[in-house]
Structure formats: structure tokens, C-alpha cells
Predict the 3D structure of the following.
Amino acid sequence: MKKVLFLVCVFLMGIVFSGLVVADDLVDMALVLPYVGNEEAIDSDIRLQQMGGLSLAVEDESNLIGLDKFGGNPAGMVLDYEKSKIEFDFRNMGAGEISLLAPTRKTYVEFEGSFTPLLGIYRGGDNAVGAVGGVLNLGITYPQSPENKTNLDLNVFGVGYSHQIEGLVIGGSVMSSNYVTKGEDTSAGSASEEKTAALILGIGCGYIIPVEDNELTLGLTLSIPREDNTVEDKINGVTQSGKYDDSLSGVGLGLQGIFKIADKGRIGLSLSQDSISGDKKTDSIKAGAVEKNETNIALRALYKLEENINMGFVYSHGAEDSIEKNLAETKISDDSDTSSDIGVGISYSLREDKGLVGVEYHSLTGAEKDKLDSSNDVDIKGTKISLGGEYNVDKQLSLRAGYRIRSSKETETGITGVEATMNDITLGAGYKLDNLRFDFMLIISDGEDDSTAKMNASVRNIGLMVKYNF
């Protein structure tokens, strides 16, 4: 089951970029939730967020290098979860604003929203069953034009099952999502609405191979995705230029390898290829075709150098190609997007289980290529540095804090790029009471870019997680 927050981030980026035409880097960092864990996992990463986003060298339930949590193979649930649990995680995404500081300060966009996922895992004998659901609500307004508003409503639901037969594990999952994006300009009487309904069926298997004191687990997944999209623009209630819709379906294949090095650590490798295609229609009449292909590779490692020193590493690369054709089979769009992340982290555990401190660095690169018009090409470079720590006051109470700085620069062909920087101060606390755990998080984010408009962003995120193990 895919990480729900990761899906939300992808949706938000597209929605926000459609409404803003400058300083995309700053908007991205301000509005997209600063999710730091593994995008395949479904567990709350609130503990990691409280420590400035440390994830590579800090062991946590959300970032385990396992067949399911790292590789996205539902057969691995029975291996990756040792206990049953119910987990509720509330995130408030704002209120926040982005302002223009030159020549005079003006509020450019305001936003506020929340995301609430609920997770349940039952682990019994050689079986594991999981269910996850989430609801997102986000509103964006433009104070300079108060009639101009954008709203997003999203709900996601997924279930999965896993069973172990000696060294063999098998499993399956179903994930569905529905979201609606509405844009409105009451002064012009115009409105737009986009609807997407997606369904992903997945099956997987894995086999455990003992290697002396170590253990190698190999996995294979097959997924069948379906996606239905509808776009409709109206002026004074009258549909303009037809109603656009498409129905896409396809298949995906994934390979995973997890190598457990005795009590020293783990190394994980995941490869996946997904293809989806279908007809594009106007007023239910075929108007063309859509093809999408996505390839991903991820390598992660966590190794204990000494009794109290952990080292972590990640390399990931993703590529997505999207092609649209008209009825004459002529390409009307041919885009290719890539993104890469190389990161390294180290953590030091305090004696007597009193806590830990850590530091982490990521180098981020990406590109957006228009194969029909290279003048639209964009190159992206960025970094992310996290510092954080945890102090266990006693066996029940833990205090956490961190600092994260994110920078990104997008450069379009023939245009000097604008660099944006976001500084995050993260604070939090956790409390354990027998099998019950509470976590509270506060993220204070402030950023700016070096454009002539001198855009400034201010965001306040809070989070509350409640978990019960049984």
C-alpha cells in the first residue's frame, strides 16, 4: 500500500503550480507537506519530523528497510510488522501565506488545510491484515483577488493481506483514491473542476534465503492500475470547449531485495516499471490517446558502525514519460520528468538509552523536458540538510527538536534561475503509557527567494499522533 502522504504531495504540487506562475520552488516547499520517510510505508513519520526530518540513520517504524515498507510489496507485511496496532495521525497544513515584498509587501496567496490518516494493522500467527484511510481538505485564496479560490478534497482508502508459509510470503492489496479540485473566479463567473478516481490492485510474493548469520529476502510484485480523469471549465454555468475525460489502465512490475546483516543493519534495493495508457475524450467522443511510463530505482542502507553509531545512505532515481496524441496519431505533447536523491546520514545514540543526535544531507536533482519544444525545459537542483535529536526524560516521556534547511533552484532554458530557501524549526514530544503512545509536533517554516519580487513564505504545521499496540 502506497504512502498516502506521498500521493497528497504529488496532488498538491500540480494544483498549486496551476494557480501560481512565479517562484514555483518556494510554493512547492511551502505547500507540500515535508514528508521525510519512505514513500512506500503507511506508518506515521511524526517522530522523524520532530527531529528535523532525520530518517536515514535513525531507526523508526515508518522507515524500516523491509519488503513491504521499503519495497512496496504487500507480501512483506507479515515480516515488517511484529505487533497489531491502531494509529491516528492528524496534520494541520497552515495557516500559511506567501507574500510579495517588492516594491511593497503584498500577500500573494493564503492557504489552510488538514490531512487525517487512520491506520489499522492486525498481526496474528503467520498472517497480517492492514487497512488505511485518509481525508485531505485544502483551501487556497488570493487576497489581491478575493473572488479567486481553489479547493481540494481528497479521500484515500486501502486494504492489504499477507501470509507466511515457512520461507515463502504472499500477499495482496487494493488502494483507491478520489479527489476533486475546484477553481472559482466569481468576478468573471468562471469555474473549473477536475475529478480523478484511481484504483490500484497489487499482488506480491517473497522468499527468505538464510545466508549463514544473515538473511536475504527476494520479492516480486505485479500491479494493475486504473485512472479516470474529468476536466470541465464553465463560465456562468455554461461548459466551455467541451468536457474532457480519459480512462487509463495498465500494468506495473516490481523487484525487491532486502539483505539483513545479522544485528548490524539492512540493505534494500527496489526496482519498478509502470505503464498506463488509454483514450482521451471530448464530450465522450474519442479525441486522442494518452501514454505514461514510469521507472523507479531505490537503494537504501542502514548500518551500525559501533554500538552507538549508525550510518545511513539512500540513492533514488525516478523517470516519467508522458505522451498525448490526436486522432491522426500526431504527438501534441511529449514530456519527460526525472528526479534523483543522494543522501547520507549519521546518528549517535546516548548511553543508557537516553536518546540520540543526528545529521543528514541530501543532494536533489531533477529535470522537466519538453521533447517538442526545448525552450520549455527546466533543470532543478537542490539540497536538504537536517539536524535533530531526541532526549528520553524517562521511559515514558521523550522530547525532540530539530532544524532543517531546504534549498532549490529551477532554471528554464535561456532564463536565469530563481533560488528559494526554506528554514524549518521542528519541535515535538512523545509520551508512552503502557501500549498507548501520544506524539505532538510543531513545524515553524519561513522561506524566501531571490527573485525581483522577493517572495516570502510563512507556514505553521502541527501534528498529533495517537497509537495503540495490542
Remarks:
- Confidence is low (pLDDT under 50) at residues 1-24, 33-38.
- The longest helix spans residues 4-19.
- Helices lie at 4-19, 24-31, 46-50, 77-80.
